[in-house]
Amino acid sequence: MMRYLIAIIAALATAILIAAPLGLQQAERQVTLPTTTTSAIGATETNHYPRITLIYPRGGEVLSGTVTIRWNITDPDGDPVAVTVAVTDDPFPTCITCPPQEWHYIAVNTSNTGSLIWDTRSVVDGEYILMIEAYDGKDLSRAYSDWFVIENG
């Protein structure tokens, strides 16, 4: 069983490594394989990754001033989820083998309220990608928007 799980994880990691440099961000958007752990008494616990639906911005928008970022995050196990929201103008934000990206963090480990007010004047005008991370205490999921424009003049 353990060899089977390791093979699946290795195959997923390879798919992400191949897809990310090609700009195929969908590869990392939702990975929902459960994490299985065994306790000291031999009981098996399975945890599923939180599921993220990015509502706004999704990409293609021109934003200015104050906007409301919106998402829907559910956890199949009912675990509480901490949310991190960030933007980057890096052309390869999901590339694992590229140099580190610079993310501008809007919120870190905030409550899963489904929305967040953001003043776009906190970054310079340009093209950006939004990332939302959901952490349920065991597993982390990420969702990315497509490119959108900040134009505050």
Question: Can you describe this structure in just a few lines?
Answer:
With 153 residues, this protein is mainly beta. It has helices at residues 2-19, 26-29, and strands spanning 35-38, 44-47, 51-56, 62-63, 66-74, 82-88, 104-111, 115-119, 126-135, 140-144, 148-150.
Largest sheet: 6 strands, mixed
**The CATH class:** Mainly Beta
Helix content: 10-25%
Number of strands: 11
Structural class, from helix and strand content? mainly beta
Distance between the termini: 57 Å
CATH topology: Immunoglobulin-like
Radius of gyration: 17 Å
What's the overall average pLDDT, rounded? 78
Q: What portion of residues belong to β-strands?
A: 35-45%
The tally of structural domains comes to 1
One letter per element, helices H and strands E, the order comes to HHEEEEEEEEEEE
Which regions are unreliable across 5 or more consecutive residues at pLDDT < 50?
1-33
DSSP summary: helix tally: 2
CATH architecture: Sandwich
Can you give a write-up of this model?
The N terminus is likely disordered. This protein has a single domain, classed as Immunoglobulin-like. Strands 4, 6, 7, 9, 10 and 11 form a six-stranded mixed sheet that branches. It has a three-stranded antiparallel sheet with strand order 3-5-8, with no helix packed on it. Strands 1-2 form a two-stranded antiparallel ribbon. The chain is mainly beta. The N and C termini lie far apart (57 Å). The chain is globular, with a radius of gyration of 17 Å. The chain has two helices and eleven strands.
